[in-house]
Structure formats: structure tokens, C-alpha cells
Amino acid sequence: MEDEEKINSERSTKRFKSKTMKNNSFIAPINNLDDGCLMHVFSFLSPIPDRYNTALVCHRWNYLACHPRLWLRVDQSVKDLSEPGVFPDLKTAVSVMLPGDTILIAAGGSHPVSNIQIKKQLCLVGGGELPDETTLICSRGSDRRYL
User: Dihedrals φ, ψ of 24, to 5°?
Assistant: First the structure.
């Protein structure tokens, strides 16, 4: 009886392995991609909500989806500006951005903006849960923008 159970167990293991091998030979799991490839895939996603949602999948995806190469951050509260991709003001971030970059503006406080010419495609994303948590104050006075 014991030999019969062992044979049945080996047969089911062989069937499982053969089915698994057939499936994996055609489709490689996305987590087998290296970080550079996966980050390249993420770069095609819209920042909100798609790239944001990928950051919720696992620690690795969070790290890659929030990598400074994919986002530039404007944060007045950051004291150590040696961190890549973090800038004290919008003007500095716009000066180094590439076409299609996303600039995430930290919530809280107002961000004065003047004499900025933007000649490239970009996406500005305001931090915070409510629209008035991130405010751009334009130099024309009455043009107050909420992101």
C-alpha cells in the first residue's frame, strides 16, 4: 500500500512539473525582469493612478515605481538636497526635467512661481488628498492654481 501511494505521488508531481514547464517556457513572469527593464515598463504608465498603484504591489515595485528617475520632487521641507530628483522649488525642477517627466509637488504650503517658461511636455502632480493641499501661486497675482 505504501509503495502504491509513493508511485501515485511521483506521478502527480511529474504531471505538475510538466504542466508548469510548458506554461513557463512561453511566458516569463514579470518579476524575472531586471530593475532597469521593469522601471522602463513603469515609465509608460500614467503617474496617477497607474504608477501609484504599481507602488502598492510589493517592496521592490514600490522602490522602482517611486524611483527618482521616474519622478522629480519639489519639496521645500527637505534639507538635504543631495538626494537625486529632489528640488527646493519648481523652477529648479523644470530646468533639469526632460520632456514627458512628472514633477510631484509636495503637499503643504504654497509654492511661489514666477518667470518660468515651460517649453517641454510635463506632468505636474500635487501631493495631498485634497485639491487645496498644494497651491501654485503665479506671478500674475490672481491666477491661483490648485493641483
Answer: -75, -20
CA 83, CA 27: separation in Å to the nearest integer?
A: 37
Closest Cα partner for 135 from 115, 107, 114, 116?
A: 107
Cell 504608465 found at: 45
Summarize the confidence of residues 5-14 as an average pLDDT: 56
Q: Could you tell me the pTM of the whole model?
A: 0.56
In the chain, count of helices (H) and strands (E)?
5, 7
Distance of CA 75 to the CA centre of its chain: 17
Order of strands, sheet of 110-113, starting from the edge strand that comes earlier in the sequence: 110-113, 135-138, 144-146
